[in-house]
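Try this one yourself first.
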């Protein structure tokens, strides 16, 4: 089984920082922006996330500083405005703290943060099956966005344990035989973190590998924060920009820049320098800038950032840049495949929800890089335009094949002289003889179960009818005997 993937290193990505000469690419983008400038920016593709947190009693000793809950807060803060979040905890049962709610109002995000902070670790068991059932019902309920990606994120410090070997074995069988196939058929991904040496990473990998997700281990409390960052990147698949030598390039189409900077071990404060050479620190009150500092991370959000180079101080190389931009990259990839089949990676640029001008697309290089579970690049392919599709919906695409089962990541990049857009997708490759379940498989099982129920019910009805008929026959037979006996008694001399 492959090891858990480390944080993706974007430092190897390159972007031209020198001013690009005026060309058709820039002109095409400018004209396109002018044409669509009057349109409101639509919401990006939303993600429905159920965050399931282990509340077993062991968390009190394994996580006395409640770093797991602080990591869950960071995860909640990183989710995008259009995402929907549900919170549940699990121990001997599962409890839904918050149903799916869109994070389009700061009060809702604050409500989620308050609920996370108030979690009490009082569970006497660790029942993954209860968490999976609750999450499945939440993610498949009516009223959802059919285009939304649906994710379950699990954080646990223990193993499946229902108090007895028999009950635990029964729950494990239910998960493998019933719940995982339902997640597969519905297209639901599971991602997770196993915390502490007692965390069952192998069982968690069974859940994640079977549904196209990723599993990570956090050995120490300080490992929890990077783990939740990985969970966010896998679940939300945000638009990213490379951070090279502490510098990130921002173009004029970026509406929001989020920076996540791991604090230096020596405790030196993080400093941020904008394109106008103005220096910002955590204590500054600057309009449009939100700066939250924790022991391990600085989380900085800049609304309508100035175009140009933003410089981040510090020796620590773990710096992330997430973008919300009018010029977005749409990337598609199946979450599950078998080792004997090739999958198609498809990508296109969209501006405020619409396909971009043909000249802009043709002057942009699209590529996909396959990464193994350790984050090591395995192969890179160029994505070519699908000329059979109309321009408005045309995507650049290419095939990817695999030599071994396991979890993979695919880094999709669109790059021109004036911008770069990158997204990282996750998927799982299953053995050739273990294809994922489909809705037809579940329909067959449901129909089979319904048929059995009908047969059993019909037999019960027949038994009841037979019992009634038998009772009537016995009663009539006995009545005839009594009448015959009375006739005999009425005979003369009887």
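Now uncover the answer:
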């Amino acid at each position: 089984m492959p090891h858990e993937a480390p944080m993706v290193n974007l430092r190897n990505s390159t972007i031209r920082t020198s001013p690009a000469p005026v060309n058709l690419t820039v002109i095409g983008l400018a004209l396109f922006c002018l044409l669509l400038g009057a349109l409101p920016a639509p919401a990006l593709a939303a993600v429905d996330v159920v965050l399931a947190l282990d509340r077993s009693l062991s968390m009190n000793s394994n996580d006395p500083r409640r770093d797991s809950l602080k990591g869950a807060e960071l995860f909640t803060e990183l989710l995008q405005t259009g995402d929907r979040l549900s919170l549940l905890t699990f121990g001997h049962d599962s409890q839904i703290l918050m149903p799916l709610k869109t994070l389009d109002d700061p009060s809702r995000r604050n409500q989620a943060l308050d609920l996370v902070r108030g979690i009490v670790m009082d569970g006497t068991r660790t029942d993954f099956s209860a968490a999976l059932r609750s999450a499945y019902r939440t993610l498949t309920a009516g009223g959802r966005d059919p285009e939304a990606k649906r994710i379950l994120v699990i954080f646990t410090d223990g193993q499946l344990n229902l108090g007895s070997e028999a009950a635990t074995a029964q729950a494990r069988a239910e998960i493998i035989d019933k719940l995982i196939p339902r997640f597969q058929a519905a297209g639901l991904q599971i991602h997770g973190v196993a915390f502490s040496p007692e965390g069952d990473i192998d069982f968690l990998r069974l859940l994640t590998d079977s549904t196209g997700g990723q599993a990570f281990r956090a050995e120490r409390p300080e490992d929890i924060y990077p783990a939740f960052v990985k969970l966010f990147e896998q679940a939300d698949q945000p638009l990213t920009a490379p951070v090279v030598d502490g510098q990130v390039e921002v173009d004029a189409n970026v509406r929001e820049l989020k920076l996540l900077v791991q604090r230096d071990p020596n405790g030196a404060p993080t400093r941020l320098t904008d394109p106008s050479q103005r220096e910002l620190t955590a204590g500054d009150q600057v309009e449009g800038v939100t700066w939250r500092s924790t022991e391990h991370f600085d989380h900085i959000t800049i609304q309508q950032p100035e175009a140009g180079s933003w410089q981040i101080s510090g020796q620590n190389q773990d710096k992330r840049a997430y973008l919300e931009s009018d010029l977005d990259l749409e990337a598609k990839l199946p979450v599950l495949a078998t080792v004997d089949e090739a999958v198609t990676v498809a990508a296109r640029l969209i501006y405020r929800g619409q396909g971009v001008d043909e000249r802009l697309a043709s002057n942009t290089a699209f590529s996909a890089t396959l990464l193994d579970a350790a984050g090591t690049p395995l192969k890179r392919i160029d994505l070519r335009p699908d000329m059979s599709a109309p321009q408005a919906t045309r995507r650049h695409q290419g095939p990817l094949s695999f030599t071994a089962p396991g979890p993979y990541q695919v880094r999709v990049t669109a790059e021109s002289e004036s911008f770069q857009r990158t997204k990282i997708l996750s998927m799982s490759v299953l053995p050739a003889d273990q294809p994922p379940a489909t809705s037809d498989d579940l329909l067959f099982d449901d129909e089979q179960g319904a048929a059995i129920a009908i047969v059993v019910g019909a037999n019960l009805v027949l038994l009841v009818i037979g019992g009634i008929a038998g009772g009537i026959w016995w009663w009539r037979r006995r009545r005839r005997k009594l009448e015959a006996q009375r006739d005999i008694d009425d005979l003369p001399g009887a």
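Discussion: The chain has four domains: 47-237, 240-325, 327-430, 441-466. The radius of gyration is 30 Å.
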